[in-house]
């Protein structure tokens, strides 16, 4: 009786850890992005010499997010421990079979075939945009555009 109640309580405790960790990561990320948008629109974040204020805010958000994800990965190791799934009496193997099983050579060959076909087709049609005037290829005439926009 005690064992059943204890295992249920431990299971619920672990579920609370798992759910709260994942929800915490999502909420923290959304709140952080929201705060940086508020700081950006209220002109608290100033532009730098090379970047506008929006890119500075996005860069700060990405930098802090990368630090948060490093901390979250350590928290994930604690919350989702691998010791629950391993048994000490089972013999341990190397990681080589797992790596070999995870490599899918079919996908690799398919992607190589698609890439080679793309570059071969591109070579055949001779599309070199750096050497061509893109407006000539689009049959662009300034008079037709100014008629549409009203600038004559």
From TrEMBL:
This is Uncharacterized protein. Keywords: Membrane, Transmembrane, Transmembrane helix. Its main location: membrane. It comes from Rhizoctonia solani. One of its GO terms (cellular component) is membrane. InterPro entries: Ostalpha/TMEM184C. It is a multi-pass membrane protein. It comes from the Eukaryota. It is found in: Membrane.
């Amino acid at each position: 009786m005690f064992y059943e109640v204890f295992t249920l309580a431990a299971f619920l405790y672990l579920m609370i850890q798992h759910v709260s960790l994942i929800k915490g990561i999502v909420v923290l990320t959304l709140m952080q992005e929201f705060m940086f948008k508020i700081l950006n629109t209220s002109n608290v974040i100033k532009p730098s010499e090379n970047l506008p204020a929006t890119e500075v805010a996005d860069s700060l958000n990405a930098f802090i997010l990368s630090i948060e994800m490093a901390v979250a990965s350590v928290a994930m190791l604690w919350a989702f421990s691998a010791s629950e799934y391993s048994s000490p009496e089972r013999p341990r193997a190397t990681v080589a079979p797992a790596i070999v099983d995870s490599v899918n050579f079919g996908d690799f060959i398919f992607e190589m075939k698609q890439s080679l076909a793309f570059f071969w087709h591109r070579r055949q049609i001779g599309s070199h945009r750096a050497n061509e005037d893109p407006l000539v290829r689009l049959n662009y005439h300034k008079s037709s555009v100014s008629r549409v926009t009203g600038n004559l």
